[in-house]
Amino acid sequence: MDKTQYKNTKRALRHARVRAKISGTAERPRLAVFKSNNFVYVQLIDDERGVTLAAADSRTHKGTTGEGAVAVGTDIAKKAKAAGVTNVVFDRGGFRYQGIVAALADSARTAGLLF
């Protein structure tokens, strides 16, 4: 197993451990984050019904990945408010809460989401 496979496997295990403890509902959906090397993806998920309420990504945003994460956090907060959601459960997807993930979370909080 090379280093990349090892890192992805470890992230998947961390994510599974976190997912065993948290779940989204209609009143408080899960804000799930995934980041690739180039882009950041976010979804608001109601796990009880298995439905994605809103989604945003950084594929259309120009600039650095960090700037894209800030824009995605703001976008998802606007879409959440439009869907009538203010409280969410933050699912960092097995990624460390630093850098891009932290920037996304901070911008979502600034835009009005509570978690």
Describe the structure.
By secondary structure, the chain is α+β, with helices and mostly antiparallel strands. It has a single domain (3-110), classed as Nucleotidyltransferase, domain 5, CATH 3.30.420. It is 40% helix and 20% strand. It contains three helices and four strands. It has helices spanning 3-19, 65-82, 100-110; strands at 30-35, 40-46, 51-57, 89-91. The longest helix has 18 residues, at 65-82. The termini are far apart. 30% of the residues are buried.
Give, in order, the helices and strands: HEEEHEH
Query: Per the principal axes of the C-alpha atoms, what is the gross shape?
Result: globular
Give the end-to-end Cα distance, rounded to a whole number of Å: 37 Å
Looking across the biggest beta sheet, what order are the strands in?
A: 3-2-1-4
In round numbers, the mean pLDDT is 95
Beta-strand content bin: 15-25%
State the secondary-structure class: alpha+beta
Number of helices: 3
Largest sheet: 4 strands, mixed
Total domains: 1
Classify the helix fraction into a percent range.
40-55%
Count of distinct strands = 4
Protein name: Large ribosomal subunit protein uL18
Keywords: Ribonucleoprotein, Ribosomal protein, RNA-binding, rRNA-binding
Family: Belongs to the universal ribosomal protein uL18 family.
Organism: Candidatus Kaiserbacteria bacterium RIFOXYD1_FULL_42_15
